[in-house]
Amino acid sequence: MNIMTFNTNEELNQIAAGIFASLIQTKPTAVLGLATGSTPIGIYQELIRLNEKGYVDFKDVTSYNLDEYCGLPADHPETYRSFMNVQLFNHINIDKAQTHVPNGNAADLQAESKSYDEQLAKASIDLQLLGLGHNGHIGFNEPDAELHAGTHVVNLKEETRQANARFFNSIDEVPTQAITMGVGSILKAKMVMLVVRGAEKADIVHRALTGPITTEVPASLLQTHPNVVVLLDKEAAKHFHA
Ligand SMILES: N[C@@H]1[C@@H](O)[C@H](O)[C@@H](COP(=O)(O)O)O[C@@H]1O
């Protein structure tokens, strides 16, 4: 596992976007696994800049997002589809038909999960971007005695709803369920990039990457993946240099 620490968020964003750009330069039909949350926003801004400058071409790129809330109206600004459109897809030359986000409003969420897994199996993700939840979740795979391998519906933990309430008018508006790629799907990506920022995640990222591998810290399963790059800002990295 390659762990890199950055003094500034600008440097982190540039290196992360550069890794995506070099993948796309060598493989124009790359399949990207994308994430939401505040962590990737700066990386997406850098990718938009690189696309505008002509350094990276998304014309033949395909993307699959990790997860989506269940039950939010499709036009709600906090759906992960809206987030991706606003933060990235509307500003780059990707074919929107080649961007995939699970449908959290599907009438049959089991069928939607199965179909997403079938698409993922065919597409095979080259590079999966991940943020980290405060409780060690990746995607919306919450700590539990058991984890699901494939795409599935989860009940969100209260702490996750609290953490995400900052994007809504109140906690009551935060959905209680989501549909997420499973840890098994995430680990099938050829390469994984975990990005963690901020002192409040210093303990959990250290535990996930150096502590026991346990379903109670879903990100700890990344220790079993042969090709993970971890990008940390200096606050999140503080226990790695203690
Ligand atoms: N489902 C998303 C995760 O994919 C994300 O990594 C996490 C952390 O978000 P943030 O980057 O805003 O801290 O939040 C959400 O729960």
From TrEMBL:
List the Gene3D superfamilies hit by this protein, alphabetically: 3.40.50.1360
Q: Which positions carry the signal peptide feature in this UniProt record?
A: none
Q: To which protein family does this belong? A: Belongs to the glucosamine/galactosamine-6-phosphate isomerase family. NagB subfamily.
Question: How is this protein named in the record?
Answer: Glucosamine-6-phosphate deaminase
Active-site residues?
Answer: D67, N135, H137, E142
Biological-process GO terms, alphabetical: carbohydrate metabolic process; glucosamine catabolic process; N-acetylglucosamine catabolic process; N-acetylneuraminate catabolic process
In terms of PANTHER family, this protein maps to: GLUCOSAMINE-6-PHOSPHATE ISOMERASE
Which HAMAP family is this protein grouped with? Answer: GlcN6P_deamin
Keywords, A to Z?
A: Carbohydrate metabolism, Hydrolase
- Transmembrane portions of the chain: none
